[in-house]
Amino acid sequence: SGRRVGVYLPRMTSRTERSDSSAPGAGFAALGLDPRIVEALAVLGYEEPTPVQREAIPPMLAGRDVLGQAATGTGKTAAFALPLLHILTPDAEPRARTVALILVPTR
């Protein structure tokens, strides 16, 4: 059809760029999430983020684009949903607008 297709691949955070706060054992609070979200997670029994959550949440909170791939049941949904909830909390840093594009596979 003559159309050009653009591909956008955001620069991924390398393992060497991670802060110590994303190290295993640091908990959700160390990732920078709103304390109310961390408290709600604790009430639900979630104390430690999964590896995909430790890798994805900090750059998402910093406003970076993230592409993530992990096996079923590894916490991908929370990896993108928790930063979105943080952005929507009333006391979070103001933003001009909240934008999210969520792509899910069909089964």
Layout of secondary structure:
Elements: H1 35-43, H2 51-61, H3 76-88
Helix pairs in contact: 2-3
Structure description:
- With 107 residues, this protein is an all-alpha fold.
- The chain is built from three helices and no strands.
- It has helices spanning 35-43, 51-61, 76-88.
- The two termini are 29 Å apart.
Largest sheet: none
What is the end-to-end distance?
29 Å
Detail the poorly predicted runs.
3-10, 12-21
Backbone CA Rg: 15 Å
- Sheet-strand content, in percent, reads under 5%
Shape: globular
- How does the helix and strand content classify structurally? mainly alpha
Count of beta strands: 0
How many helices? The count is: 3
As a percent range, the share of helical residues equals 25-40%
Would you tell me the overall average pLDDT? 75
- Elements, N to C (H/E): HHH
Short description:
The protein has 107 residues and is an all-alpha fold. It has three helices and no strands.
Main features:
mainly alpha, globular, 107 residues, disordered N terminus, single chain, 3 helices
